[in-house]
Design goal:
The protein has 173 residues and is an alpha/beta fold. It has a domain at 25-129: Immunoglobulin-like. Helices cover 32% and strands 18% of the residues. It has helices spanning 2-23, 41-45, 72-77, 147-150, 155-172, and strands at 26-28, 50-51, 55-59, 68-70, 94-98, 103-108, 120-126. The strands form two sheets. It has a four-stranded mixed beta sheet. The longest helix is centred in the N-terminal third of the chain and has 22 residues, at 2-23. Mean pLDDT is 80; it is low at 138-159. The protein binds 2-acetamido-2-deoxy-beta-D-glucopyranose (NAG) (2 copies) and copper (II) ion (CU). Residues 62, 91-93 line the site of one 2-acetamido-2-deoxy-beta-D-glucopyranose.
């Protein structure tokens, strides 16, 4: 009896973990190319959806590049912020940025000339429910989340979750 209750608790815990994994996507900027000159980041952004809770990962050679968070005007002009701060620029070479709020986010490389050569990225972060639905009383289905937003689990996340479920079940029986 006790082990049955334990089983239910474990299954519920797994469901909670799985649903949180399913909601977050890790976006590796430039995919395998990473953050460098010669990648069209406008092209990279095309067709992608960035949601609050997702992460943005910049991979690059930190002897040559960095990542400045800037505003829209600085982005447009390839102009750096007037002062550096503790977390700006990022320069680890593997920077993981949590997308915590909706709205546009702008990033440029601070090495002279690199932004002009295309090391600039702008994304639009949406709240998980998507853009505010326009009132459409005759079409209630418009309020449902799109399938692409509902199924965002990456293959590695599924594999990791599956192996976790397997090892928990294995230790129970
Ligand atoms: C990058 O891609 C965008 C969108 O496809 C395109 O409009 C733009 O001209 C490209 N930029 C360069 C420098 O090729
Ligand atoms: C570059 O990356 C290495 C390894 O992550 C780190 O130790 C070093 O401090 C970084 N350099 C700068 C300028 O942040
Ligand atoms: Cu650079």
């Amino acid at each position: 009896m006790a082990s049955k209750q334990m089983f239910v608790v474990v299954v519920l815990a797994i469901i909670v973990v799985l649903s949180s994994i399913a909601l977050a996507t890790e976006h590796v900027v430039g995919d395998k190319d990473g953050w460098k000159i010669g990648v069209n980041y406008t092209e990279w952004v095309k067709g992608k959806t960035f949601l609050v809770g997702d992460t943005l990962v910049f991979n690059y050679d930190n002897t040559t590049h960095n990542v400045f968070k800037v505003d829209g005007d600085q982005f447009k002009a390839c102009k750096l912020p007037p002062a550096k701060t503790a977390d700006n620029p990022l320069s680890s070479g593997h920077d993981v940025i949590a997308l915590k709020a909706s709205g546009k986010k702008w990033y440029i490389c601070g090495t002279p000339g690199h932004c002009d050569k295309g090391m600039k990225l702008v994304i639009n972060v949406q709240s998980p429910a998507g853009p505010a639905p326009t009132p459409a009383p005759t079409a209630p289905s418009a309020l449902a989340p799109s399938p692409s937003a509902a199924f965002r689990t990456s293959a590695p996340a599924i594999l990791a979750a599956a192996s976790m479920v397997g090892s928990v079940l294995g230790s129970l029986f």
